């Protein structure tokens, strides 16, 4: 909670550092505090998407299912490099090791495909929430050995498109929930990307999509 993330303005320009605690309190979020984040979507060689269930210990959205890895670049030079979203890719590689046990040596930065950014606000409970500009990164066709960290990840699951749609449709029946950013990305973008994993360049943009 004391790690320093990157506080940004609504145009994603860095302003200062801020602790994870400060940037996830609803009291500061309601005053406009915004920070930078990323979401990784890893697909295996069969085109299945790796999902994770967040651990019970997460302060925001515990036990909810989400995309492969979601976290924040930290406020130090390597993870603040802007060109080609390089800093965010450094952070994503670091967190994939921390959360899922994927060695950093197994991934090159150029294997991460940056597509776009979304700006969203989502309360988790009365105290904590998220207010982020979220960089979306795709890792297509990667078969990687996983060793999830139980402090971060409760469960993992690979799904096809029909299986994910079925999970969304039946979530009440199954007693599961999905994180708000994952639902936003899935409903607006994910399926068209999924159909074109070999041609992701056509989807790259410089926009910040306000949700």
Automatic annotation (TrEMBL):
Residues 33-184 form the Nudix hydrolase domain. It catalyses: isopentenyl diphosphate = dimethylallyl diphosphate. One of its GO terms (biological process) is steroid biosynthetic process. Keywords: Isomerase, Isoprene biosynthesis, Lipid biosynthesis, Lipid metabolism, Magnesium, Metal-binding, Steroid biosynthesis. The keyword Signal does not apply. Its cofactor is Mg(2+). It is an enzyme of class 5 (isomerase). CDD domains: NUDIX_IPP_Isomerase. Residues 1-20 are annotated as: Disordered. GO terms for cellular component: cytoplasm. Residues 10-20 have a biased composition (Basic and acidic residues). Its EC number is 5.3.3.2. The keyword Magnesium applies. Pathway: Isoprenoid biosynthesis; dimethylallyl diphosphate biosynthesis; dimethylallyl diphosphate from isopentenyl diphosphate: step 1/1. Transmembrane segments: none annotated. GO terms for molecular function: isopentenyl-diphosphate delta-isomerase activity; metal ion binding. Belongs to the IPP isomerase type 1 family. This is isopentenyl-diphosphate Delta-isomerase. It comes from Gonapodya prolifera (strain JEL478) (Monoblepharis prolifera).
């Amino acid at each position: 909670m004391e790690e320093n993330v990157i506080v940004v303005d609504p145009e994603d320009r860095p302003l200062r550092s801020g602790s994870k605690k400060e940037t996830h309190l609803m009291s500061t979020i309601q005053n406009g505090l915004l920070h930078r984040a990323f979401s990784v979507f890893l697909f295996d060689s069969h085109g299945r998407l790796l999902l994770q269930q967040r651990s019970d210990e997460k302060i925001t959205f515990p036990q909810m299912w989400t995309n492969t890895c979601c976290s924040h670049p930290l406020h130090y030079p390597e993870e603040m490099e802007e060109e080609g979203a390089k800093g965010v890719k450094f952070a994503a590689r670091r967190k994939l090791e921390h959360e899922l046990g994927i060695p950093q040596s197994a991934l090159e930065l150029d294997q991460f495909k940056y597509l776009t950014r979304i700006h969203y606000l989502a309360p988790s409970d009365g105290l904590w929430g998220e207010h982020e500009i979220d960089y979306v990164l795709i890792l297509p066709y990667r078969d990687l050995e996983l060793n999830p960290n139980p402090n971060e990840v409760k469960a993992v699951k690979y799904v096809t498109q029909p299986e994910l749609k079925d999970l969304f449709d039946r979530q009440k029946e199954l007693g599961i929930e999905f994180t708000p950013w994952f639902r936003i990305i899935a409903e607006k973008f994910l399926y068209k990307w999924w159909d074109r994993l070999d041609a992701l360049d056509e989807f790259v943009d410089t926009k910040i999509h306000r949700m």
